[in-house]
Amino acid sequence: MYAATLTEKFQIGIPKAFRDDLGLKAGQQFVFVAKGDAIIMIPRRDIKAVRGLFKGANTDNLRDRVDRF
Length: 69
Fold this sequence. Notes:
The protein is α+β, with helices and mostly antiparallel strands and 69 residues long.
């Protein structure tokens, strides 16, 4: 477990071990999502990087909007 401190300018440093493991780069953009008391930070990816992500996915059992609760 790693800890970081929020500065007076509301900045926080990402521990080096995390940066290395996730391959984060300086200048990279992130999306922040609030989940209760937690903050999820998701690296924003170029659309080209996610191309083919769902290739071969089974689309036989898709729900339409009217089927959703």
